[in-house]
Design brief:
Number of domains: 2
Structural class: alpha/beta
CATH architecture of the largest domain: Alpha-Beta Barrel
CATH topology of the largest domain: TIM Barrel
Bound molecules: pyridoxal-5'-phosphate
Number of helices: 14
Number of strands: 22
Largest sheet: 9 strands, mixed
Distance between the termini: 57 Å
CATH class of the largest domain: Alpha Beta
């Protein structure tokens, strides 16, 4: 076979080639996802295309359940819709046994549309509206109260409907993670959370069935969950001792880190993100030390999002063109940008070639196709030369991309699921002009130029 020509390139011999983790990263190629050739996926669905692996999602779910149940027997996962609310994805989690965790009326409606009954929905979020609360109360959802005005509103609706809503309060606390996420819920340390509980009890309009916290996201210190669990369990004990109320569940929220690498991080995510076992051990330690737990065995709920699905997502994107920058770096323009992959703003996403390549590397920046300076998919990384038109894999991209992606400049790509049997299932087709402007209205006097 004729060898590929590689243009010569002079690169400064930099002292940064090795670091304390060893030699500079070696770029390996991957030409298949779950056994399906990348080429075949592109031929069928075009490029770019977001691919999700059903077996990897299920495997992560089972691994997390196993890790938690090693330490505590009564565990339930609640799928955090905002992480990825494609119906097929939610149903994979529901089939695995997760209930739904939603943070808006829209997400609540999505769960109901999938057939999830109200009493299998946890309704979080700081912006719940009256009509949304009314519906959730009628349908028996667990409502997690964020602030006092919401508390008063729920009380009022409950009286009007003559129903007793099942509620929890969201609690925020110092677990050693800064900046502290203190804008959601009621504070633990200054007594606000306990005062809110007292207020709910004295109002006699609702039933407190749980306590909830979500201390932040991409938490790299597993021990923070020990402090979180301890605080919630102490609060539960106090409620029991002083108010005679026994909560049924302790909801620890989400926040486990995926294997992604944060933009500011020196070490790769797979080296520093705690494992499910480490998180489970920290939570289990607090639960197993607790008198409240030994007496009442509350349900432990986790709303893990990104750590369950990030690694199951692969964006396939192809090279539109290349250029050499005045800095000496190579620029590669891809056909997918931050409009489809918003997590490129938080992570050093991994770019992987899809074919074997000769070894010469050059520092390469990956840009998207948007005519905006912000459209950087991956800051400079040593990378082999690529040919125009060839696909690369951008990973991990399963979490928060197809919920936070933007309708901006380009159409959003299709989403495809590789089923457990290796079938390619289209979950969402590539957008067309009607998807973008179909709901627009043009006033009569502006209908012509
Ligand atoms: C209340 C709540 N639960 C769960 C999650 C999921 O978090 P993560 O994806 O970090 O696990 C979030 C996300 O911010 C959240 O706000």
């Amino acid at each position: 076979m004729k060898k590929t020509y590689i243009a010569p390139n002079i690169e400064r011999n930099s002292a940064g080639n090795t670091n304390k983790y060893g030699a500079k990263s070696v770029v390996r190629y991957q030409d298949k996802i779950d056994g399906i050739p990348v080429k075949e996926i592109v031929e069928q669905f075009g490029s770019p295309v977001l691919v999700l692996s059903e077996s990897q999602i299920r495997r992560r779910h089972r691994r997390l359940m196993d890790a938690l149940q090693m330490h505590y027997p009564k565990v339930r996962l609640a799928w955090s819709y905002k992480t990825n609310y494609l119906g097929a994805v939610c149903n994979i989690f529901h089939q695995e046994g997760s209930c739904a965790e939603v943070v808006s009326g829209m997400e609540y409606a999505m769960a109901r549309r999938l057939g999830i009954p109200g009493n299998e929905i946890i309704f979080n979020g700081p912006g719940k509206k009256r009509h949304e609360l009314e519906l959730a109360i009628r349908e028996g959802a667990r409502i997690h109260i964020d602030h006092l005005d919401e508390l008063y509103l729920i009380e009022k609706i409950a009286q009007e409907l003559d129903l007793v809503p099942q509620v929890a309060i969201r609690v925020n606390m110092d677990t050693g993670i800064y900046p502290q996420w203190d804008r959601f819920g009621f504070n633990y340390e200054n007594g606000e959370a306990y005062r809110a509980i007292n207020r709910i009890v004295s109002g006699k309009a609702m039933k407190i069935v749980g306590l909830h916290a979500h201390i932040g996201t991409f938490i790299l210190d597993a021990q923070a969950y020990y402090y979180e669990a301890k605080a919630l369990l102490e609060l539960a004990q106090r409620m029991k001792d002083e108010l005679g109320i026994t909560v049924e569940y302790i909801d620890m929220g989400g926040g486990f880190a995926s294997q992604n690498t944060l933009l500011g991080s020196y070490a790769p995510g797979e080296f520093i993100s705690p494992s499910f076992d480490q998180y489970a051990e920290a939570i289990g330690a607090a639960f197993n030390e607790s008198h409240f737990v030994s007496q009442n065995l509350p349900k432990l709920i986790l709303e893990t999002g990104r750590a369950l699905i990030d690694e199951a997502g692969y964006l396939i994107s192809s090279v539109v063109g290349k250029k050499n920058l005045p800095s000496g770096e190579r620029a590669v323009i891809l056909d997918a940008g931050v409009n489809t992959t918003i997590t490129a703003w938080w992570y050093k996403l991994k770019v992987t070639p899809t074919r074997p390549f000769p070894g010469a590397y050059q520092n390469t920046i990956f840009y998207g196709p948007l005519c905006m300076n912000i459209d950087i998919m991956r800051p400079a990384v040593p990378f082999p030369d690529l040919q125009t038109g060839e696909p690369v894999l951008i990973t991990p991209t399963g979490a928060y991309n197809n919920t936070q992606w933007m309708q901006f400049i380009e159409y959003r790509p299709p989403v495809v699921l590789i089923s457990e049997t290796g079938k390619l299932e289209l979950l969402r087709p590539r957008e067309e002009l009607d998807d973008v402007i179909g709901r627009e209205m043009i006033p009569e006097h502006l209908r012509s130029q």
